[in-house]
Amino acid sequence: MKRYSHDEMTEMKEKLYSDFAGGSIGIRDSTRHMRKIIGITQAEYAKNVVKISPRILSDFERGVGNPTLDTLERIGRPFGLQVSFLPPEAWRLGRADSSNVS
Question: Among 2, 40, 46, 75, which has the minimal tally of Cβ within 10 Å of its Cβ?
Fold first, then answer.
């Protein structure tokens, strides 16, 4: 895998965070991009960094896995990401519709 300079990695992380926060990239693709930014394989990231089975990470990235909340936390933690509950996108964008509130 390609190794990036510190500045390149910082720029790539910032773009990833922005894309993820803006909804233009999903959690599975974000995970794949995170691995590529630090330049390690799926198996290396799973076993050495996240401490999960490579199969679990592979299934998740391919969209066939259903990881636990703890596993999702482990996957994002090396990048300072955490699983959280967010309000609907309309609320985050200032367009709350009170008819959707229970």
Answer: 2
